[in-house]
Every structure is written in C-alpha cells, then in structure tokens.
Amino acid sequence: MALFITEECINCDLCVEECPNGAITMGAEIYEINADKCTECVGHYDQPSCIDVCPTECIEVNPKRKETAAQLAEKFEHLQA
Ligand code: SF4
Ligand code: SF4
Predict the structure, then answer these.
(1) Contacts of 6 (CB under 8 A, 6+ apart)
(2) Structural domains of the chain ordered from first start
(3) Is the overall model pTM greater than 0.70, yes or no?
(4) Phi then psi for 31, rounded to 5 degrees?
(5) Helix (H) or strand (E) run with residue 53 in it
(6) Which residues contact 63 (CB under 8 A, 6 or more apart)?
(7) Residues within a 6 A CB radius of ligand 2
(8) What ligand 2 atom has the least distance to the C-alpha of 8?
(9) Alpha-carbon torsion angle 2, 14, 21, 65, nearest 10
(10) Cβ distance 3 to 9 under 8 Å?
(11) Are 79 and 39 in contact (CB under 8 A)?
(12) 65 or 12, greater pLDDT
C-alpha cells in the first residue's frame, strides 16, 4: 500500500527529505504523498522512513491503494527506469 498524510500534519518538513522517491510535496494546506511514487520505501529501506521521523504520527497506510510487496517492488523498478 502507498501511504497518506492525515490532517494531523503540522507541516514540519521532516518527512520531505526522508523520502527516497520524492513522493512528498506540499499540498493546499498540508503535505501530501503521491501514491504513484510511494513504495512504502520498498527498494530503499526496511520500513517507511517518513513514518520514522514524523513527530505527530500522522502518516498512515492508504486503504484506497492496496498493493502487494511484489507490486511495490515493481513500482520501485519503474521509478528507477
Ligand atoms: S513510505 Fe517511503 S516512499 Fe512512501 S512517502 Fe514515505 S518515505 Fe516516501
Ligand atoms: S513529518 Fe509528519 S508532521 Fe511533519 S510534514 Fe511530514 S507528515 Fe507532516
């Protein structure tokens, strides 16, 4: 699954530099995750690095973007191409 940012985001910027796929950008009011670029850090790290640094624990799995580990790995390969 890709991840998404909830309204608890305080725009602290910490997650932006942590994302190896450049998937996190500023939205209308808070940061947003581009689900097409989020691999849950598959291909880079063992676990989502944005969740590790978020002080408000406002990054959650996106129930609308259920993807298997194989699909996330395929997305990683596509992003590297
Ligand atoms: S889980 Fe990884 S790839 Fe997805 S938004 Fe967070 S840092 Fe970026
Ligand atoms: S680390 Fe968390 S609170 Fe900070 S900008 Fe990212 S999502 Fe928002």
Answers:
(1) 58, 59, 60
(2) 3-80 (3.30.70.20)
(3) yes
(4) -70, 150
(5) helix 49-53
(6) 1
(7) 5, 9-15, 31, 53-56, 58-59
(8) 3
(9) 10
(10) no
(11) yes
(12) 12
Q: How confident is the model at residue 1 (pLDDT cuts 50, 70, 90)?
A: low
Please tell me the residue having the least CA distance from ligand 1 atom 6: 50
Q: Which two tokens stand for residue 77?
A: 């390969």
Report the C-alpha gap between 46 and 40 in whole angstroms.
9
* Interval 12-56: pLDDT, tens: 999 999 999 999 999 999 999 999 999 999 999 999 999 999 999
Taking the centre of ligand 1 as the mean of its atom positions, its distance from the CA of residue 30, in whole angstroms, is 16
Question: Does any ligand 1 atom lie closer than 6 A to the CB of residue 42?
Answer: no
